[in-house]
Structures are given as structure tokens and as C-alpha cells.
């Protein structure tokens, strides 16, 4: 029964750059959160799992304490706690907004159910998630600090989580919401010649990689290149993947509904 359900599963990622103001530490973009909750409610897709990023909540704190290299000394211990705490604050805003729009959202803390090994997901307790889908809940996960069997702890990006969830739960498709229209041949924020790629295969992506710019603002998990690296295994697995601009009204709605929308479709 659960397998049948999850064959229809949609995994939606909301990038930290959309739901927060990436230039101002610990500043949510409440208008964007509210609009996206409305779009998700209107699209009414089920089953659905949501994963959101850290933006100006997780990234600056994780960087301040040097968490991305794993445990080095005891001064990082408080840094782990604070990074997790700020992520739960951001998560509460999103879950709250979804509930206000009548979506039965439930927070799922990655730090409590995922263990990584050298930064890669080693195990995940997914039984509560499966039960949630069966009962019609919308679990909401996020990029988080997690415990790591080799390095003490690690930063788990929302993108790695998206790919892993989609593959393990046999999702039908992934919608990734970012703050640009999709994948470009350069950095659209600094290069006026950068062109939006509407459709790309994994083979074509390989040739393009040297051109894709890393993100300029603090991003401890690797910008657009890191995103593509994480999404690739899910695409290889045959999961339809689309990147859309979640900062633009209705793009996430259309992508969730499977309607034609500006963005980048990535296919095997
Ligand atoms: C980062 O998550 C989480 C932490 C730094 C703790 P993501 O890497 O998914 O966040 P965004 O979407 O790039 O902001």
C-alpha cells in the first residue's frame, strides 16, 4: 500500500535563498513563505514531502563555527546546537504557514533520524515518514546538522536529502525551487550572456559543468554545482526533475500541477 502511494510521491525543495533574505543573517522572507504555502495548498498534490534549505539561518552559523569540516574541537559543540536551533526556527515558520493554509504539515528533524558517513547519508529512519504519507500528512524536512559516523557531525544539505528521499521512497518527481529561473550556461546574476537551459540530459550536463558558477554568497553546501551533483543520482534513477524560480509567483504551483512552466527539466 505504501509503495503504491509513494510511486506518486512528489518531493519539493524550497531553497534557502527564496524563504530567507540571504544577505541578512536570521531574516526570513515571510511574504515568500506565505505565498509558497498558498501555492502548495492550491496545487493540492498528494503525497508530498517538503524539504527546505538554510539560507541566512543555517549557513552563516555553520560557517562561523567551521562545522562543514566536521568535529575538530569542543568550541564547535555549541555551534552545532545553535545551527540546529536556528534551522528549527525557520522550519517552524514554514510549518506554521502551511498549517494556516490547511496543509497537515509535520516537522521531521533530520538530525534525529539521519546518520551520515563522511558527509553522505548512511542511514535514515524513514518509517514515520512512510506512515505520514499513508495518512495524508506532509512531512517537512530541512538541511540540518547531523551526526556523522566518521567525523562526529556533518552538514546535510537539503539537496542531498531531496535526492536520497526521492530514491528511497520511489518518488515520481522532484521540484526544486531556487531564486533563478533554472540552470544557466553561466551565472545569470553577473553574466548578461548567461542563457537559460530549458531541458538538459545528464550527458549534456557533464559538458556544461565547467561553466556553471558556484554561488557567491555564503553557502556551505556548494551552490548550483553542488545542487546538480546531488540531484544527478535521482535523475539517473529515472525521477523527473525540474528546477524552477520559486521567487516568482506561480512557478512552484505550475510545476507541482505538472503544467508547462519556465524552468530547467533534467532527464536521464
Ligand atoms: C543548509 O541547507 C543547512 C545548513 C547550513 C545547516 P541547504 O544547503 O539545503 O540550504 P540552501 O537551500 O542552500 O540555503
Keyphrases for this structure?
about 270 residues, alpha/beta, 8-stranded mixed beta sheet, 4-stranded mixed beta sheet, binds 3-methylbut-3-enyl trihydrogen diphosphate
Shape: globular
Tally of contiguous helical segments: 11
Q: List bound small molecules.
A: 3-methylbut-3-enyl trihydrogen diphosphate
Please describe the biggest sheet, giving its number of strands, its sense, and whether it closes into a barrel: 8 strands, mixed
Number of DSSP strands? 14
Sheet/helix structural class: alpha/beta
The neighbouring-strand order within the major sheet is: 3-6-2-1-9-13-14-12
The radius of gyration is: 17 Å
What proportion of the residues form beta strands (DSSP E)? Answer: 15-25%
What string, H for helix and E for strand, traces the elements in order? HEHHEHHEHEEHEEEHEEEEHHEHE
Mean pLDDT over the full residue set: 92
What is the first-to-last residue Cα distance?
Answer: 28 Å
Looking at how many chains there are and whether they match, the oligomeric state comes to single chain
The helical percent reads 40-55%
- Give unreliable regions as ranges: none
Explain the overall architecture.
- With 268 residues, the protein is α/β, with parallel strands linked by helices.
- The chain has helices at residues 2-6, 16-19, 30-43, 55-64, 75-100, 110-113, 127-135, 158-168, 202-208, 223-236, 251-257; strands at residues 10-14, 48-52, 105-107, 114-117, 120-124, 138-142, 144-148, 152-156, 173-178, 183-184, 196-197, 199-201, 240-245, 264-267.
- Strands 3-6-2-1-9-13-14-12 form an eight-stranded mixed sheet, sandwiched between helices. It has a four-stranded mixed sheet with strand order 5-4-7-8.
- Helix 3 (30-43) packs across helix 5 and helix 3 runs parallel beside helix 11.
- The chain is globular, with a radius of gyration of 17 Å.
- 47% of the residues are buried.
- 3-methylbut-3-enyl trihydrogen diphosphate (IPE) is lined by residues 15-17, 53-55, 58-59, 62, 83, 87, 143-145, 155, 157-159, 219-221.
